[in-house]
Structure formats: C-alpha cells, structure tokens
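Appendix C: a fully annotated inverse folding record. The material below is reproduced so that readers can follow the format used throughout the book. The structure is listed first as tokens, followed by the designed sequence.
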C-alpha cells in the first residue's frame, strides 16, 4: 500500500507539473491571428537554397549580364597586408565596388551555419579577408558598413555589422588575424558609449539611448531624424556576449544598463533588426543571471506594428496567398515585406525560447508561417508578371537562389508583387537583393522538414551564439487538430529525451530514429540527453550531468538569493586620510526588507552602512572592501572592490593643442609646432616629439617639422610627462600636397539672383520652391535666397553632367538664423546614401559627406558655427583627400579614395532627398558653384578673398567704379571711360577659374575682346590704383 500511495503521489506531482508547464504557454496576439496551416503550403529546402546561393554568389568565374557578383581587392584598406572581398548589394548594382558589411558578413555566417567552411573555400579564407570591414585605419575600431566608414548616421548600419562579426567569431573562434583584438575593441567601444550616454554605477543610473545614432569617435549622439531606441537591444546583446565570452563584469554592467533602458520604454521602439536581438538578450539574462526583464512585452513589440516606422509582422492573405509571418511595413495602405527582416528576426527569437519556454508554441507557429511565405521573395514562386526581374532570373538563376529585396501587397494593381527599392532609387538595374538573401543560411540552419508535412523540426542551438554547453535541442509544433507522430533522429547510442514544456522525460533509452507523439495544436521541445544522466537543480535551472536542460523548472521549489549587480567607486585610486563613497546596487527585484549588510575591509568590519559606504584609509597600499548581503532565509551574495591608497593624487598633464604654423604644407616644407599643455604641480614637464614621416627637431614644447618629400596625410605626436611619470599624449595630422595639375570645368553655377538659373552654360537650371529673395553677404538686396527649414528648397533635375566621378568642388555662401537639434542640408546630390551632400550637424559644424565606390565618409569642420553670420564654404575631393574650407581657410581634411558613386536623383539646395523635408535648411544661401575637379587652396582663397563671384573687399563693389557693358555680350566688352585712368590691370577668368587674359594699364583701350571665347560664364577682375580689387561676372553668348 505504501508503494502504491507513493506511486500515486509521484504521478499526481508529474501531472501537476506537466499541466502547469503547458498552461504557462503565453499567447502572442499577433501570432494568434496567423493560420495554423498556411495555404498554399510550399516549403523550400532552405538549407539547400543557402548552399546553392553560396555556390552562385562566390563563383568569380560566372559570366553573363551583371555577373560575377563577387569582387576582390588585392590590398585591404585596414589590413593592406592581405586581400579583401565584397559582394554586390543588388544584381545589376550601379556601384559594383560599393561592398557592404551588412551583406558580406551575414553571407559568411549563413553559409557557415549550413556547414560550409568559409575559412577554406575555393582556395581562399573569406573569414579572414572580411576582417577588413573592421574600421581600424580611421580610428573607429568597430565593424561598420564599409571598410572606411564613419559611425553616427544610422544605428542599424553601425551596430549590426558588429553583431554579425560576433556571430562569425563564435563560429570561428580561431579565425586568426586580429579577431581577438577586434572582439575586445567592439565591447570596449560599446561600453564606453553606454557610459557616455549616462550609464553609471556611482550610483546606478541607466543611460538615455533614445537617439538615431551614436558617433563612436566623438561619443556624441545624433538626435535628428527618426530615433532608433531599439539599438539598446543590440548594445545589450553585444555586451552580454562579450561578458559571456570574457567574464569581464564591466561588460555585464553595460548589458544591464542598455537592457534597463529598453525594458523601461513604454512605447514600441521597433525600427529594423535590433529589437529581436534585445528580446533574446533579455530572456537569456533572465535565465542565466536572474534579471527580471519584461520579455513578454518585448516579444509583442517584436511582432506588433511599431509607431516609429510602421514596421511589424504581417498577418494577411494577398490574392489568396498566405503571407503571414513576413516582416516589414505592416497594416499600411499597402504592406511591404522585406526578406532580411523576417529571417534575422527568426535568428534571434528561435533560440530565445530555450531561455523563456513560455513562447515556444507561439514562435514555432510563426516560424512555420514565415518559412512557408518566404519562398515568395524568390523567382519562380510568383508568376513572371508579378516579379520585376524575372527575365534575368530565368536566364541566369535556374536554381532560384537570389531573392528580391521585398514584396508589395499591391503595385499598380498587381498583387503580390516581388520588387524592392533599388531600381526606383537608381542604385541598381534590378531589385534582386543579395543583402537580403545573404542571411538565408540562418533560416536553412534552423528549419528542417519532418516525416509529417507542416510539422517542422526547428534547431534551437544553431543561432544561439556563445551558448553554454548544451545537448541537441529541437522545437516542433503540431498545427493539426489531432496528434501526430514525428520521427526524430537521435543518432547512435542511447538517449533520454526531455521536454521542458511538459517538464518530463518523454522517452527513455531512445536510439536512432525515435517516434515522438505531439498532441494537437501543441509544441514539444525535445532535448536529447545522455541516457540515465544525473538530474540536479540550481534554482530555476534543471541540469542533466551538469548541463542545463530547462531554464525555468517547476519541479524543485527554490528561492532567489539577493544579487549585487554593482559595487563601484568614482575612482579606484584613493588619497590617504580622505573619505570616498562606494555605491552598492542590488537587483531591482531583490526584496530589501530584512536584509543584512556586512561591510569589511582587510578583516575589519565596518558598521553602520547599507547600500552606500563612506570610507577612507590612514595607510598606503592596496585595499580590499568586501560587501555581504544576506536575506532572512540565509541566502546571500558577495562582492568586493579593490582600491589603491596613495600619498597624493597627481593628475596627469593635459595637452590642449598642438599649434601649427600652417594648416597644410608642401613636400619638404618646414612647419613650426608649439605644444600647449597644463603645468605639473612643480611646473616641470618634459616633451617627446615624434612624426610619422619627415624629420623633427625639438626644443621642449617647441619643435620644427621638416615635412616628407611625398604627398599624404602625416601625423605628429607629442608626449608631455611630469616629474612623477604621469603623461599625456596628443596627435595632430597635417596635409602635405603640392595642389598642382588638377583640371576640369565648372558644372553648375547658381547666383540665386532672383531665380534658380544655371549660369555655367550647361543648362542645369533649378526650380525654386517657396524660398524668398534675401540680402546677400555684401548687403545687396534680392541677391540671395532665404529657405525656411520646412518646405523651401531648390531642385535641379538629374543629368549625366552632374554624375562626374573623378573629383568635385562645391562652394557657396550660407547663413544660419537659428540652431537645430537635427541635421540641416545645405546642398545634396543623393545625400550620403547615394552620392554626396553638405550639411550642418546638430553640433553646429559643417559636414561634407561623399559616397564613393569604396564607401561613405564624413568630414566635419572643427569649430562650431555661429548663427546670423555669413560663411563662405568650399568642399573638395580628388580621389585621394576630402577637404573642408570655411572663409577661405582649410579647416578639415581626411583621406578617402574611389570614384564618386552615381545617382539618378535630383540635386537639391536646402533639402536632402526627394520627399524628405525633415532636414531642410533654414537660413540664407547664395552663389553656389559645382566643379568636376578639386580646386586648390589658393583658388578657394581667391574665390573668398577677391570675390570671384561676390566682392568681399572692404565691402566695396564694382558698382563704385561703374559697370562694363554690354553684359551679356556677344564679343566686345566696353569699359566706361571714367574707369580707364583708375585701373592698373584687368584679368579675365573662365568658368573653371583659369586666367585666360591679362591687360595692363597701358594696354587698356576701353574694349575687352571676348569674341574668340566660347559661350559661358567669365569673370573680370579689375585692380585699381589703390590696390583694391573688384570683380564682375560676364556672360558670353
């Protein structure tokens, strides 16, 4: 009777646990709306698709229209000692060398997940070559979208390449190169940024991350534009992975700060890809370290339509075809799904259910819908009339492995329609997108069909990067109204199969193909454990032979111990006989009622303190401070802090500036340098000067640098050291160039004198929209335009003339009349996404941005701009360097290379892109010129000082002496007789700034003969006896 009673009690307990676990499945309303069995049902073998895709796009011998799709560079930008490679972003790209990390890196991860070794394929190590996307040369020390990119424009382009590299690093832990350095550098940069955003442990404070982007160089936010607070999810994912790999508790703090910001949001922050990774990180941190983030809220956010961009998971039928599960613009007048987003969301949320099993059934049902509907992005799964590149696919892609970027619910009456943004945006000749398809290996690694149609076997470990030791783990969902039997291959040997959802071993001693029964409309999570393994429990975790098989067990009651998540002081160097504060922070869910706080140092108890200790030492040396927190049940946690006590804290010197006698120099020129630094306590500093090239002679804080004989950008470094050995180092760069030989022509000239006419002779006339005439820098009324920062702009239709490639100069006048916390565009041809632009960033600095075939680069002026002041700006690029000038002075420069990217978009003054008025300029614009080559500093100075277009000499104008006539002229230009006895010299310049005629006083007869010159714009400079210089614009027809 005792045995029977025990058996009944055990059976009752088993049924109770099993029933409770099943009831704990959380409903996700958006997924509930999806069909259990999508129709029509056509499941592709996504693993084979991924393998075939890799074979296609990495085949450099492919021939045919737009082929091959891979390109190589013999030298990397960041690692010139080895080659690098890239993939076309789209089939038929118009920028074949514009390789992107968001395409290249996931292509390697996806292929590796389906068991291809990308470190030894086709005789090449693609994994090692991809390290060139780590932007080391420019000092960003992060993976960015290009090999020479700058952070701070768009968080998803800045964060996701680092996520993809971390995934690759997990798959290839011995990849070599600088992978280990890169891994740590990324974590350090992320932590530094989170601290700069306000994350702190003295006391504990979460950061503000409600920005569009973050400049990791200046550690400043981009507040303008649509914010991307979901980036906190990527920050948390990266920092928690770094903590998991390294054990560095500082990374864990950063992960928790980021997650607390995300968890504390009230509205859905969904924007692109980063939220699902944050959702995964929240679930894993809850399971592994005992945090209490609201995962249910985040899962719902990941599927519901967000307010920031209107993206979410689609639930719909398009022309009778189930498309539920795809991700993109949702619940709009016409939904717009993107392949990349659905696949990457699955890569993040599938492994999440290991750590929070409450969502297993919902996620499995969603994956069934997603994996079925995803076929519609690929050629052959919609009629040719419902695809916009079917001819190319039919001719070149028989295996149908390159998918479209996106799919519209309705396009001009066609539904659904496989398409994308590239053709409309002028970026490519097709919308077949490698950047979206490159992630297909993630889906192929996770999803496998079974012996029962519509029941998938989902691998929970494939995209669970940096996971602890785990047994094979699979999720299977039965969408039918009756139970099904699935055959699971367990392999040779004997295994027990544990199901965390029912919290039972559903099969004992399994071997080889094993049948698993799944009840109707339920899911099973099969963990294949060693047969007869020892079961143990650690609070929320159940383990078999020391390996966690269930992160939320209910079989063994447990209580959470207190958790000290931080113990910190503002400094770890303390001065003797002074008191300092130490802050202790407990987990938010820790019940502080009845807690015992015990502080100790070197064996001595410190009485009277709880979560903040004020303490100091009367002796020198290293000290340890220990905190023990214990609750009423006797459960406790311990943390310690180590400080060093010194006799006196001497702050290191500060170098404020390296003063240079010139902003740039010619090869071999001598430049004088002065180091401006704070003094030591005893007033003694020693200086050490070094240069990257050339020679330097130093005398304390003064030095003389003889520049190298070659052109380039070179570095000078000074180290100032005080009497105690503390030091500071500062570096400056100097541009060395002869600035000779550049030739070209003026492309467009907009005086903005009452209209948008182009006076270059090229007919690139602009249309003024809303802007009103204004007074220019010379005080002349109606000789400039005021733009209101809202709808005002000038547009110039695109032209082949505007799409020159080898160099550029843009110059003009501007005046701001207020400060904005957003970027303001002065002039733009396709903006940074497509070609180039000049803007003013929220820090009130001028920004010159160009996109070349090697990447996008920003260059900012140094000082903040003043409002209500006219500036003359000029920016240049010559395929070697980018330069920024203000009022004729060179103020910034940076190396960059490659032909300018082309665009099909219009040129704008006062606006960034068509139909994008969020960044319109407010203020006055005047006299804008565009050249197809880089003017020299002397030519820029001449434009500013002599007023080639507008006189700026002492506020005087040619009108003071009279005007030449007729203007426009067909040949002969007459000078008023009243001028002739006041002139020393007359000079005529063509539209490119080249002097074509000079007449001295004795040669001037009153006529200037231009009859042999071609039609166009010329400038006449008149040098008076008193050395004043005046300029007049001449139109020759």
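Designed amino acids, in order:
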């Amino acid at each position: 009777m005792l045995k029977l009673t025990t058996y009944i009690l055990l059976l009752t307990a088993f049924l109770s646990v099993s029933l409770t676990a099943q009831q704990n499945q959380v409903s996700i309303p958006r997924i509930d709306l999806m069909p259990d069995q999508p129709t029509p049902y056509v499941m592709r073998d996504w693993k084979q698709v991924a393998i075939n895709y890799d074979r296609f796009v990495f085949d450099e011998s492919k021939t045919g229209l737009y082929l091959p799709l891979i390109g190589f560079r013999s030298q990397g930008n960041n690692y010139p000692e080895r080659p690098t490679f890239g993939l076309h972003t789209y089939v038929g790209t118009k920028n074949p060398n514009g390789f992107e990390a968001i395409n290249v890196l996931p292509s390697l991860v996806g292929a590796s997940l389906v068991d291809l070794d990308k470190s030894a394929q086709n005789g090449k190590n693609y994994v090692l070559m991809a390290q060139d996307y780590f932007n080391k040369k420019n000092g960003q020390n992060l993976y960015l979208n290009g090999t020479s990119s700058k952070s701070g424009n768009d968080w998803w382009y800045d964060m996701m390449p680092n996520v993809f590299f971390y995934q690759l690093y997990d798959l290839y832990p011995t990849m070599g190169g600088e992978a280990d350095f890169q891994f740590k550098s990324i974590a350090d940069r992320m932590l530094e940024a989170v601290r700069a955003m306000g994350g702190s442990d003295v006391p504990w404070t979460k950061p503000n991350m409600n920005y569009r982007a973050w400049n990791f160089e200046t550690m400043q936010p981009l507040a303008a534009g649509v914010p991307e607070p979901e980036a906190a999810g990527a920050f948390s994912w990266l920092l928690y992975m770094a903590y998991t790999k390294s054990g560095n508790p500082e990374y864990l703090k950063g992960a928790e700060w980021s997650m607390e910001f995300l968890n504390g949001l009230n509205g859905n922050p969904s924007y692109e890809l980063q939220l699902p990774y944050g959702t995964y990180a929240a679930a894993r941190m809850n399971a592994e370290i005992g945090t209490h983030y609201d995962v249910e809220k985040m899962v719902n956010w990941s599927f519901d339509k967000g307010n920031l961009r209107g993206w979410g998971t689609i639930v719909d039928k398009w022309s009778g075809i189930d498309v539920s599960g795809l991700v993109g613009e949702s619940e709009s007048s016409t939904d717009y799904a993107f392949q990349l987003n659905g696949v990457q969301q699955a890569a993040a949320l599938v492994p999440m259910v290991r750590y929070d099993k409450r969502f297993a059934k919902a996620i499995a049902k969603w994956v069934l819908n997603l994996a079925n509907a995803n076929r519609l992005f690929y050629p052959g799964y919609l009629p040719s009339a419902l695809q916009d590149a079917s001819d190319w696919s039919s001719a070149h892609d028989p295996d149908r492995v390159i998918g479209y970027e996106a799919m519209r619910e309705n396009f001009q009456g066609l539904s659904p329609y496989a398409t994308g943004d590239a053709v409309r945006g002028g970026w490519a000749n097709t919308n077949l997108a490698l950047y979206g398809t490159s992630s297909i290996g993630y889906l192929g690694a996770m999803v496998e069909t079974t012996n029962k149609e519509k029941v998938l076997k989902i691998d929970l470990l494939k995209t669970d990067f940096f996971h602890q030791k785990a047994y094979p783990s699979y999720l299977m969902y039965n969408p039918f109204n009756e139970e099904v039997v699935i055959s699971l291959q367990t392999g040779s040997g004997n295994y027990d199969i544990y199901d965390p959802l029912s919290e039972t071993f559903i099969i004992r001693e399994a071997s080889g193909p094993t049948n698993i029964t799944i009840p109707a409309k339920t899911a099973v999570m099969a963990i294949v454990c060693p047969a007869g393994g020892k079961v143990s429990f650690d609070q929320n975790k159940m383990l078999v032979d020391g390996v966690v098989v269930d992160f939320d067990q209910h079989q063994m009651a447990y209580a959470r111990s207190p958790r000290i998540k931080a113990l910190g002081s503002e400094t770890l160097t303390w001065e003797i006989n002074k008191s300092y504060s130490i802050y202790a922070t407990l987990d938010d869910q820790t019940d502080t009622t009845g807690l015992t706080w015990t502080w100790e140092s070197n064996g001595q108890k410190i009485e009277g303190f709880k979560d903040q200790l004020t303490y100091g030492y009367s002796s020198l040396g290293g000290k340890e401070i220990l905190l023990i927190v214990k609750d009423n049940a006797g459960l406790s946690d311990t943390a310690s802090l180590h400080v060093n006590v010194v006799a006196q804290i001497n702050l290191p010197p500060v170098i404020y500036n390296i003063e240079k006698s010139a902003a740039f120099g010619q090869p071999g020129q001598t430049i004088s340098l002065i180091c401006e630094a704070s003094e030591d306590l005893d007033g003694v500093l020693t200086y050490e000067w070094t240069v990257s090239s050339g020679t330097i002679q130093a005398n304390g804080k003064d030095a003389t640098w003889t520049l190298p004989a070659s052109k380039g950008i070179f570095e000078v470094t000074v180290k100032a050291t005080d009497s105690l050995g503390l030091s500071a180092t500062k570096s400056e760069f100097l541009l060395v160039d002869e600035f000779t030989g550049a030739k070209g022509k003026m492309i467009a000239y907009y005086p903005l004198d009452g209209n948008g006419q182009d006076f270059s002779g090229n007919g690139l006339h602009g249309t003024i929209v809303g802007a009103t005439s204004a007074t220019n820098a010379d005080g002349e009324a109606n000789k400039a335009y005021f733009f209101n920062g809202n709808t005002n702009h000038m547009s110039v239709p695109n032209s082949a003339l505007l799409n020159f490639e080898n160099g550029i100069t843009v110059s003009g006048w501007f005046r701001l009349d207020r400060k904005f916390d957003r970027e303001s565009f002065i002039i733009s041809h396709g903006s940074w996404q497509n070609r180039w632009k000049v803007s003013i960033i929220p820090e009130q600095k001028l920004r010159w941005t160009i996109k070349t075939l090697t990447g996008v680069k920003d260059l900012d002026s140094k000082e903040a701009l003043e409002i209500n002041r006219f500036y003359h700006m000029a920016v240049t690029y010559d395929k070697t360097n980018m330069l920024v000038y203000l009022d004729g002075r060179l103020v910034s420069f940076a190396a960059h290379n490659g032909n300018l990217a082309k665009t099909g978009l219009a040129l704008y003054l006062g606006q960034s892109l068509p139909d994008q008025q969020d960044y319109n300029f407010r203020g006055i614009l005047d006299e804008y010129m565009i050249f197809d080559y880089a003017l020299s500093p002397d030519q820029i100075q001449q434009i500013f000082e002599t007023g080639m277009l507008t006189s700026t000499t002492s506020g005087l104008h040619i009108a003071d002496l009279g005007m030449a006539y007729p203007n426009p002229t067909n040949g002969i230009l007459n000078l008023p007789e009243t001028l002739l006895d006041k002139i020393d010299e007359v000079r005529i310049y063509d539209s490119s700034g080249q002097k074509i005629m000079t007449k001295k006083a004795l040669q001037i007869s009153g006529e200037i003969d231009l009859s042999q010159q071609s039609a166009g714009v010329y400038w006449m400079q008149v040098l008076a006896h008193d050395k004043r210089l005046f300029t007049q614009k001449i139109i020759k027809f």
